[in-house]
């Protein structure tokens, strides 16, 4: 018998916390290095960057050779469990908000594969046999199945973890979906240039473009999750070649391979982005890749439990929807049977797991559910269904730069009737002429007759009274004579 929500704990196995190296950051955001930029920005380039220029129809799809772009070596030790454990008494708040326990009546993600382009995914008991390696642009031989940073395993857990134990409250949104892990970046690996004595971490826009193509070409993959971002000032100029490569890879995934790409909206601070984006939807000050290419990707903002936008969530005209992104609980990448709810730096400072990186997998998992329930929908229709059924903000057109079309609503996404999917055109405004009714010309004759009659009656009454009064008075005043 399943225990009730009030008594269920997350793990009777004692969920573990994580010790992340400082390079991974408090939220362990996997971020590919951006393209090289001009040394000085130009003011004119800062205008009109809300949407990227469209790709030419004949722009080639990036070629994926499956190889790292450099020879990377370990920089710091891989993530480890802290050593101490504690039972977690509450499920992630996002599970109750998004009604995970009811979603299984409609879809579980069975038959779908989600490619996780990230820092790799370490095998975990809660994946059973649903995890497979899909490629590696850090150390090719490891095939995406080693997560030295801990980030990708947590992302994948939000999508598809399934403890298969009623006493463990945590689970992924699509607990029967498969995971294909492609390691594209790592802050714990570096390439040292002997000529300049400088080093760069593993991962950049070039390998991201190749990873997207690889994911799209992997048999069975219907959804891609990219909790990786590159952020740079819009003033650095128009679209660069590595950015075009990512744009072309996303177009290929959607239009040629019918795959749904999902990306995190980006965190502050991130890359060159040190402050919040401009509120002007037409002129953002920062550009986030891949979210900038909103024609081909669902980008996800992070929400807090009280329903507000997380302070670290980068806003922009490309934001599609929002999902839970704070106080995250997911899989422990250093313990194959544990969970994690904190990151711990080398000084012992613990912080909650948070970030748009962990909001994106909620949406990727939802896309897998929608694809299972509505197999006839193509990638664009799946993305549109998720946006249309979200809890829209009170803004023009039902969207804003903070949360896009709003917090996702998985139950609505799996059950709502969408007229456009049935080729029913949207309602159109009907020009109904407004005419005042003709003036009512009242016939005052009856009223006049009544008033005259009443006036005459009152006049006769007054005359009668006057005559009677006069007669009585005359009678009273007439002297009497005796004879």
Automatic annotation (TrEMBL):
GO terms for molecular function: peptidase activity. It comes from the Bacteria. Residues 28-48 have a biased composition (Low complexity). Belongs to the peptidase S8 family. Pfam families: Peptidase_S8 (PF00082). GO terms for biological process: proteolysis. Residues 109-406 form the Peptidase S8/S53 domain. SUPFAM superfamilies: Subtilisin-like. Residues 1-30 form the signal peptide. Residues 28-70 are annotated as: Disordered. The chain crosses the membrane at residues 449-468. The lineage of its organism: Bacteria, Bacillati, Actinomycetota, Actinomycetes, Pseudonocardiales. The active site is at 118 (charge relay system), 151 (charge relay system), 357 (charge relay system). Keywords: Cell membrane, Hydrolase, Membrane, Protease, Serine protease, Signal, Transmembrane, Transmembrane helix. Gene3D superfamilies: Peptidase S8/S53 domain (3.40.50.200). It comes from Actinophytocola glycyrrhizae. The gene is mycP. InterPro entries: Peptidase_S8/S53_dom, Peptidase_S8/S53_dom_sf, Peptidase_S8_Asp-AS, Peptidase_S8_His-AS, Peptidase_S8_Ser-AS, Peptidase_S8_subtilisin-like, Peptidase_S8_subtilisin-rel, T7SS_pept_S8A_mycosin. This is Type VII secretion-associated serine protease mycosin. Residues 51-60 have a biased composition (Pro residues). It is a single-pass membrane protein. It is found in: Cell membrane.
